[in-house]
Design a protein that fits this description.
Elements: H1 5-15, E1 19-22, E2 26-27, H2 31-39, E3 47-50, E4 53-55, E5 60-61, E6 66-68, H3 74-81, H4 85-96, H5 103-116, E7 123-124, E8 134-137, E9 159-160, E10 164-168, E11 175-179, E12 182-186, E13 189-192, H6 199-210, E14 214-220, H7 224-231, H8 241-248, E15 253-256, E16 263-265, E17 270-284, E18 287-288, E19 294-295, E20 298-310, E21 316-318, H9 328-346, E22 350-354, E23 364-369, H10 376-384, E24 395-400, H11 409-417, E25 425-431, E26 444-452, H12 466-476, E27 480-486, E28 494-499, H13 505-511, E29 521-526, H14 535-545, H15 548-551, E30 552-553, E31 558-561, H16 583-591, H17 599-604
Parallel strand pairs: 1-3, 2-4, 6-21, 7-15, 23-24, 24-26, 28-29, 29-31
Antiparallel strand pairs: 3-6, 4-5, 8-20, 9-12, 10-11, 10-14, 12-13, 13-20, 14-17, 15-16, 17-20, 18-19, 22-23, 25-26, 27-28, 30-31
Bound molecules: flavin mononucleotide.
Length: about 625
């Protein structure tokens, strides 16, 4: 039997012992996604194949297996790319710096580089694709055939989470592939969550202005690079499948959808085709998102399904997003590496950059710079905040090229804290990710840039023990809960203070001014689900929760308000809930011996609140 692209890859993964097959029947409602969520947090996560997905509520047994966690770890991700992402970045760098060749060997090497580019444009095939082996149209084209997962108990429903969304501009000249979540409203309608800044949203505006229906085709499965390309921040107007051809050194091969004019890869597992009536929007969400918080309900376009086609033995691919780390860590790692040379075209003195997983990409970027003049770091901060999706970044920390590796977090933090001064902090505003919840309003908010490229600062802080500091702080903070100091050996120790929020953090900051000689950076967190001794999750929450313009104060020490905002702060939006697992589902999977999840893991990644308060 001929195997599909995804089946072939899964077999190869199994041979390498990177695949875990779960034969136990598991519910598409919470059970399968919870298991994948926990797997991604284990020391050596694997790709998961669920061979018996069931829908307990509706009594459905699916023949179609579910694959999750495809980008399971660094090794699997590199294997999917066929090479280390840095090697792809080097190829891009060489192309960007192509100069007229010197000598015969130079000409030959340039020829081979250019020859590789022949793989870039996708090829349109005239025949039907493997993904069109089985065709359902009209009422038969039902989403109920697919094991679409409900990830979180407070989600607005079931969502397709790894859909490759293919669209084209009104004039048909531009194609786009974007990865957006898709809400199942009923058997024949999907919500299309392309945010306002994204390319498909721009195409959608063209159809709306023209009053025409917009064709959309959604592919699932096939080579995992299709979905990686869908999330890659390619410039507007560039079809992401060109990147697929460049990386794989093989053109993407496309076939025409059956009921609309869009082209989709021939070897995907499932295709959902249809049209969007731009005059109708519908409430989408809530959905537990990759920020680790629920995103609120908003209006989004709706796809009316005209056909569903599948391969002969299709596999349904899905992901789970929530609190880090998850598989988007590895997808993001590849993106970060591969896009460095492109970023360097705007910021040539940028040596390297890195987005730590617990900074959930747009909340925190670390950047290394070869500084050549005063204000250089500020120049690049502004460049970042003006470039494509990089402009969503809320907090950017810059170091000079003598700094340790950007992934050596402990030493790098010391390096930054030893060079940090209030003068090196730039606070401004700009566009922010549509998912951000910290700012008073959506889409625009505070930006914070730290220039730590300068000289080492003297250590002037009079450090006292946690116990003594706690005594002094708690007498000034009536609802004090806990305190912990970090990096006390540096010029800028960090003190995390947890309290029950009956007053604003600003009021507490002011009441602590008499203690200023013992304080350099104070981070306020509230009672909700925080643990002052868990820096990984603190970083995640702090960078999520602050709008620098409102929440950062620079004198007489640096104060950062990372609490949940409410009316006390003048915040009138609804503050989102944490994305938490359902403890009964986790307990049940543990009792059945299907999940490897002890209390330490639940606590370390704040999977749910049940045991955290004890
Ligand atoms: C797991 C995952 C889920 C995502 N979900 C969405 C989403 O629902 N809506 C959205 O606009 N972007 C989402 N993104 C980000 C987009 O895929 C990304 O911004 C992409 O570059 C958009 O492509 P475009 O610029 O061609 O629209 C998601 C990314 C990942 C990795």
């Amino acid at each position: 039997m001929i195997m599909s692209t995804l089946q072939t890859l899964l077999e190869a993964l199994q041979q390498r012992n990177w695949l875990k097959i779960i034969d136990e029947p598991l519910d598409i409602y919470l059970e399968i996604p919870h298991l994948a969520y926990v797997e991604a947090k284990l020391p050596h996560p694997k790709v998961l194949l669920f061979s018996h997905p069931i829908d307990v509520k509706n009594g459905t047994v699916f023949e179609m297996p579910v694959v999750m966690n495809m980008f399971a770890n660094f090794e699997v991700t590199e294997w999917i790319f066929g090479t280390h992402p840095d090697a792809i970045a080097s190829e891009i760098r060489e192309l960007l710096h192509l100069k007229p060749p010197e000598g015969f060997m130079g000409k030959m090497s340039m020829l081979s580089q250019l020859f590789n580019l022949k793989n870039v444009p996708p090829k349109k095939l005239k025949k039907r694709g493997e993904c069109q082996s089985i065709v359902y149209e009209g009422k038969e084209a039902s989403l109920d055939r697919l094991p679409i997962l409900t990830t979180w108990s407070e989600d607005g429903g079931a969502f397709i989470t790894m859909g490759q969304v293919y669209t084209q501009s009104l004039d048909g000249k531009m194609q786009n592939l974007g990865m957006y979540r898709l809400q199942k409203y009923d058997a024949h309608h999907l919500g299309l969550h392309w945010q306002i800044h994204k390319d498909s949203s721009c195409f959608f505006d063209q159809y709306r202005e023209a009053g025409k229906k917009m064709p959309v085709s959604i592919a699932i499965g096939g080579h995992p690079l299709y979905i990686w390309c869908g999330q890659a921040p390619m410039p507007y107007g560039m079809f992401e499948l060109m990147l697929y051809g460049f990386v794989r050194k093989e053109n993407a091969k496309l076939v025409k959808s059956i009921t609309n004019d869009l082209y989709i890869p021939h070897d995907v597992d499932i295709v959902i085709e249809g049209f969007v009536d731009p005059s109708t929007l519908r409430i989408e969400g809530p959905f537990g998102d990759h920020t680790g918080y629920y995103t609120p309900q908003e209006l989004y376009p709706v796809l009316e399904i005209s056909a569903i086609t599948t391969a002969k033995s299709p596999i349904y691919q899905a992901t789970v997003v929530g609190k880090p780390p998850l598989e988007d860590k590895y997808m993001g790692w590849a993106t970060e590496r591969i896009f460095l040379p492109l970023l360097q075209t705007t910021a040539p003195d940028l040596v390297d950059y890195h987005m730590p997983e617990n900074g959930v990409f747009h909340n925190l970027i670390l950047a290394k710079l070869k500084t050549r003049f005063k204000g250089h770091a500020q120049q690049i901060m502004h460049a970042f905040w003006g470039v494509g999706q990089m402009s969503f970044v809320k907090h950017a920390l810059f170091v000079a090229d003598d700094a340790p590796s950007l992934t050596d977090y402990g030493t790098l933090t010391e390096h930054i804290l030893n060079r940090l001064t209030p003068r090196g902090i730039l606070i401004t505003s700009g566009i922010i990710d549509a998912l951000d919840h910290a700012s008073h309003e959506t889409l625009v908010g505070g930006k914070l840039g730290v220039d730590a490229t300068g000289a080492i600062q003297p250590k002037t802080c009079e450090v006292i023990s946690d116990d003594v500091l706690e005594e002094r702080v708690s007498s000034r903070v009536p609802t004090f809960i806990a305190l912990k100091q970090y990096m006390t050996h540096t010029a800028n120790p960090i003190t995390v203070i947890q309290y029950t929020k009956t007053t604003t953090a600003k009021t507490l900051f002011e009441s602590l001014v008499p203690l200023h000689k013992h304080l350099r950076i104070v981070v306020f967190v509230d009672e909700c689900h925080n643990d002052v001794a868990n820096p990984y999750m603190l970083i995640w929450r702090v960078f999520n929760n602050i709008d620098a313009q409102r929440d950062v104060w620079l004198s007489p020490f640096i104060g950062i308000d990372a609490t949940t905002k409410n009316r006390l702060d003048g915040y009138t939006r609804e503050w989102p809930k944490d994305v938490d697992c359902d403890p009964t589902v986790i307990d049940n999977l543990r009792k059945r011996g299907i999940i490897d999840c002890d209390d330490a893991l639940i606590h370390a990644y704040q999977l749910h609140k049940k045991r955290l308060d004890v």
